[in-house]
Design brief:
Blueprint (H helix, E strand, L loop, with lengths): L9 H14 L8 E2 L1 H8 L3 H13 L3 E3 L5 E3 L4 H25 L2 H22 L6 H16 L5 H22 L4 H16 L2 H21 L5
Antiparallel strand pairs: 1-3, 2-3
């Protein structure tokens, strides 16, 4: 997911649209990405689309098939487990550093991000599926806020890239886990305000593992 405040060129805007459509499952896993069709859908030139798809290929969101073109990266149980394990490793490390370095401004960001997420979780629990994308946006923002004081831009950017891949699985196969996930987010907030990194890592690992188990149980991933 893209940080706010960036100036977008037309090509960057189309890149963000296609990337978002992949992450949120609007472009389904394994779909062939035909340039003529994409040109009509996104209003971009073939050369621009080739550049965008090559860029997405480097992010492992698109597969380049040589002369046959491109397709959306398929999903698999094996890949989900690998992405989840990498997220746990990166985010767990970043949490410890962020909790140690975080100041009152960081606390404010974390509290504000959790407030927005909790509101969307309440609406999701009430059956309002129209806020699904907002819910996941605020989920992303909360987890990014938690690690935002870690002191490493590279760690934050790497975590964001991995989180996006995990996000795609959530949107395609997992869905909303209800009160369980909401309670885990509340516990992460409490740990952050107490600077309790040890318990935060335990909650995080359970949170991510629970998401994987829920996704696999849904039967949506082969």
């Amino acid at each position: 997911m893209r940080a706010t405040g960036q100036i977008e060129t037309p090509g960057e805007s189309v890149y963000q649209q296609i990337r978002g459509d992949i992450l949120f499952g609007r472009l389904s896993p394994g779909r062939k990405l035909k340039l003529d069709q994409l040109r009509t859908e996104y209003g971009a030139s073939v050369s621009t689309l080739r550049e965008i798809l090559s860029r997405l290929s480097s992010e492992s969101l698109v597969v380049a098939e040589g002369q046959r073109g491109f397709q959306v990266m398929p999903i698999s149980a094996k890949n989900l487990k690998e992405v989840a394990a990498l997220r746990q490793l990166l985010e767990g490390n970043a949490l410890e550093q962020s909790f140690r370095r975080g100041d009152i401004e960081w606390e404010g960001r974390v509290v504000a991000a959790h407030h927005k997420l909790a509101l969307m979780e309440d609406r999701m629990e009430a059956g309002d599926i129209e806020v699904t994308e907002l819910w996941k946006k605020y989920d992303w923002q909360f987890h990014q806020a938690l690690i935002s004081a870690c002191g490493s831009r590279l760690l934050i950017e790497t975590h964001a890239a991995v989180f996006d891949k995990y996000l795609r699985y959530l949107m395609i196969a997992l869905g909303f886990r209800g009160k369980i996930a909401a309670e885990e987010h509340k516990r992460l907030l409490d740990c952050a305000l107490r600077r309790d990194a040890s318990n935060a890592r335990d909650v995080l690992f359970a949170h991510v593992s629970g998401g994987v188990e829920h996704a696999l149980a849904s039967g949506s991933i082969s």
